[in-house]
Write a structure and sequence with these properties.
The radius of gyration is 24 Å and the shape is globular. It has 21 helices and 2 strands. The chain is mainly α. Strand 1 and strand 2 form a beta hairpin. A two-stranded antiparallel sheet has the order 1-2.
């Protein structure tokens, strides 16, 4: 490229920045980074925590750089949500005279990709298909040949090298089964981790893919059912029960979620939270769902015991913050800040806001918040951010979006393309 004329070189670079290739490639990199590093760690050389930190910061800087170069489209409503969230963080920081930068970074991941997602035309179906096949293939391979997966990928060895708390938990005398914590459930059930190295994110990816396919195939029943069956298969292989529940609610409620008025959609986080409270208090004392009750208690009992200042300004007990995103994010922004984060992450007010996608994303985000903040990690958060910010109605799928509301194959259909009209006029003049 160095030998090209300056004008030609500038034009090529401009088209490169303006195309959707680089942002989509960044999403692929975010999703596959840990898997690639685990392979390198297992087969080539040891990977350390500093390597992971540097690579993740590099991905974040790439996203920020693309954001500047590609001129994102931010609506007034979206800007107001960002400003309000910033105020919540600022007030909490001033009140406590400190903040947690790690939490602030985790809080920024999905919003960053939501804004970057506004710069692409639309997530192509082939792109999601390719990601889906990669996740399904690695998950099936692990389910069929777990020993091979553990020997070649060895997620536990990778996490022990790159996460100090994992190494501490293993101890000197612990064996090396090769699987990350939680991959073996009681009763000898193996939970496949696949591309994401741990089952929870695998289930979350299936939920995000399901939201995409329900929206894309809303007029193609057979394709929608087949796609959802694939998502359910991934969840079952990962034995991610919470993800299966979320997918069922979204799929069953899709017709309602697509038609909810905007104000009603904004109430969904509160409805999901209330539904979780009903499940928790009805599960207390039950031996059949004692694990569910214990997990939910870390959120609801802490919030019930917290005073008003902690709820509004942060400072909640962080003992179980890794198992509750509500406690985790509210610590630096209060409960209001957490709600605003959910709205931003679901694409409320964004240029790509669509009732079904936004409402389904709200259900997904708040539901998974009750079980930790894994949903905010860059490996699934990048794809979610692009999904909620970039999807536009397709003319060949939405009859109302077609010119004159007519089918192009009908005899009386007339295109409204300016170039076609001008060509018709030219022909008439020649006649």
């Amino acid at each position: 490229m160095s030998g090209m004329p300056a004008a030609v070189r500038k034009g090529i670079l401009a088209r490169t920045w303006e195309s959707d290739f680089l942002p989509l490639a960044l999403v692929v990199f975010c999703m596959g980074m840990n898997f690639a590093l685990a392979l390198f760690n297992s087969l080539v050389a040891s990977v350390q925590e500093i390597h992971v930190v540097v690579l993740q910061l590099f991905m974040t800087l790439c996203a920020a750089g693309l954001l500047v170069l590609r001129r994102p489209r931010v609506t007034t409503d979206q800007a107001m949500l960002f400003i309000m969230l910033g105020i919540c963080v600022f007030v909490s920081t001033v009140y406590h005279r400190s903040t947690d930068f790690k939490i602030l970074y985790d809080m920024s991941v999905i919003p960053l990709f939501v804004v970057l997602g506004s710069t692409i035309r639309k997530i192509p179906r082939w792109f999601v298909h390719a990601l889906f096949v990669a996740v399904l293939a690695t998950t099936v391979v692990e389910a069929v040949a777990p020993d091979l997966y553990a020997r070649v990928v060895n997620p536990l060895k990778y996490y022990a090298n790159t996460r100090s708390w994992v190494a501490d938990k293993l101890g000197d005398d612990a064996g090396d089964p090769g699987f990350y914590f939680g991959a073996e459930r009681g009763g000898g059930i193996h939970r496949a981790s696949g591309l994401f190295l741990e089952p929870l994110s695998t289930g979350y990816f299936a939920c995000i893919a399901a939201i995409f396919y329900i929206y894309e195939y809303k007029y193609q029943f057979a394709k929608k059912v087949l796609s959802l069956a694939g998502c359910v298969l991934i969840i079952m292989l990962a034995d991610a029960r919470a993800s299966l529940g979320v997918l069922f609610v979204i799929a069953a409620g899709a017709p309602i979620l697509a038609r909810l008025p905007r104000l009603a959609g904004l109430l969904l986080p509160f409805l999901v939270f209330a539904g979780g409270a009903v499940v928790y208090y009805s599960a207390v004392g039950s031996h059949h769902i004692v694990d569910m009750a214990t997990r939910l208690s870390w959120t609801y009992e802490e919030l019930r015991a917290a005073d008003l200042s902690a709820l509004l300004l942060g400072g909640l007990d962080q003992t179980h913050a890794n198992d509750s995103a509500i406690l985790y994010f509210a610590d630096v922004a209060g409960i209001l800040g957490y709600i605003l984060l959910m709205y931003i992450s679901a694409g409320v007010g964004s240029t790509g806001e669509r009732p079904f996608i936004t409402n389904a994303a709200l259900i997904y985000l708040v539901s998974t918040s009750l079980f930790g903040h894994v949903f905010a990690s860059i490996k699934t958060g990048a794809l979610l951010g692009f999904l909620v910010a970039s999807q536009k109605p397709s003319e060949n799928e939405n009859p109302a979006a077609r010119p004159h509301g007519r089918d192009p194959r009908s005899k009386d259909f007339r295109p409204s393309c300016p170039s076609t009209v001008s060509q018709t006029r030219t022909i008439d003049q020649k006649r």
